[in-house]
Amino acid sequence: MSRFVAIKTELRDGDILKESLRELKCTVIPQTEMTLYAKTQPISFLAVTPFGRVGFRINDQGQYELVGDEDVLKKQGNFLDRLTQRYAYNKVVKEAKKAGFSFIKEEVMEDNSIRVVIRKW
Questions:
Q1: Considering the chain, what is the average pLDDT of its residues?
Q2: Which of 20, 27, 40, 94 shows the greatest Cβ crowding within 10 Å of its Cβ?
Q3: Which residues lie below 8 Å from residue 95, measured CB to CB, with a gap of 6+?
Q4: Residues 6+ positions from 13 with CB-CB distance below 8 Å
Q5: Per-residue pLDDT tens over the stretch 60-71
Q6: Phi and psi of 18, rounded to 5°?
Q7: Which SS3 state, helix, strand or coil, does residue 111 take?
Q8: Structural contact between residues 20 and 84, judged by C-beta atoms closer than 8 angstroms
Q9: Taking the C-alpha atoms of 63, 64, 68 and 73 in order, what is their torsion angle to the nearest 10 degrees?
Q10: Which residues does 16 contact at the CB level (< 8 Å), separation at least 6?
């Protein structure tokens, strides 16, 4: 029988997290609870991903945790890595613009890392 599990992340900004999920073709649904096998867990929002429905909740350290059915989360593969990369990219671009930098270009490298060029005059 499956059970609820949580995967800790370093993601802290909910708006950027939701934006990053949408960029990865996930649907974000405002929802405060997730139920599995008659057990309910509090969540901040629900995401419909390519591998199934998962929740995100904030822990005591202010970090989002990915929560859901253990069997569903086993199917996530490298999704969390891709989500973390999109989140970092979006956070860097947002903070750079806030600090007065201009976005010049981005380049996706062979290893799928992203090189971002920003400039401040």
A1: 92
A2: 20
A3: none
A4: 87, 91
A5: 999 999 999 988
A6: -65, -40
A7: coil
A8: no
A9: -90
A10: 87, 90, 91, 94
- Judge whether 39 and 95 are in contact, CB under 8 Å: no
- What is the CB neighbour count within 10 angstroms for residue 79? 18
Tell which phi-psi region holds residue 100, choosing left (phi > 0), alpha (psi between -120 and 50) or beta.
Answer: left
21: which 2 tokens? Answer: 């999920």
pLDDT(1) > 60: no
In sequence order, which residues have a C-beta less than 8 Å from that of residue 50 and are 6 or more positions away?
25, 26, 79
| The pair of three-digit structure tokens given for residue 89, joined into one six-digit string | 């990219």
